[in-house]
Amino acid sequence: MSKLLIEKRGAVTLLTLNRPEVHNNVDDELACLLADAIIEFGHDDAQKVLVIAGAGGTTFCAGANLKGMRELFEHRHTGDAGPMGFCKLDPGKPTIAALNGNCWAGGVELAVWCDIRILDENAKMGLLNKRWGLPLADGGTQRLPRLLGYGNALYMIETGMEIEADRALAMGLVQEVVETGTALDRALALAAHIAGYPQGGIRADRKAALATIGMSLEDGLALEVELCHKPSVAPEAMAGMDSFAKGSRPEPPRQPARTRRSGRG
Asked: Pairing relation of β-strands 125-126 and 162-163?
């Protein structure tokens, strides 16, 4: 059986890391499969949202295969995608991590590569690779500070602390904490909802939000004009405005009860 399971559910692509016997750690073969799948998803016009999960229900991803580190830095996608096969890629579409189990080391890097993270309430997260002196090589040093701020990012990076689900939510590391065993279902439900929206505006907003990190407000606003104004008057958006004028009010997705009770997210 393949080390990466690929399933298309309507307009949603589900990728499942399939090495549960080793906590879904990523070896060079899986890294190449993952890169190929992300690239294919980006090129497939029929697919709107990507969801990534782990097989086995215990661990989303334990990071890189520590017994094959040299191979991870020498495979055919290391240069264009990164050692674990994702960090330099951007499909240009929404991505969701279904953290249906513990998420460690490079697994955290994969999670923060995604736009949205949904975490099972019994799962833990942490950069446990610090115990062996391994640096982050798949975007963690760049994405964690942008996501969490320097204080929380360096706290995770320097201590290697294992973080409970509620702490991950409070830090902004994840967007929702859900009942154990439901992260994948929730991620797929959100993905289907997002896939049902007109995509032009979502993709323009996503690109502008990511591309303007580190820019001045003035430069960021200028890029927003470049990226987002044209989709605002495209036929897809005009059709949406017409449906609004005719009384259409689709229900938005609602946060799960646990996230609401926490007062966060």
From this structure: antiparallel
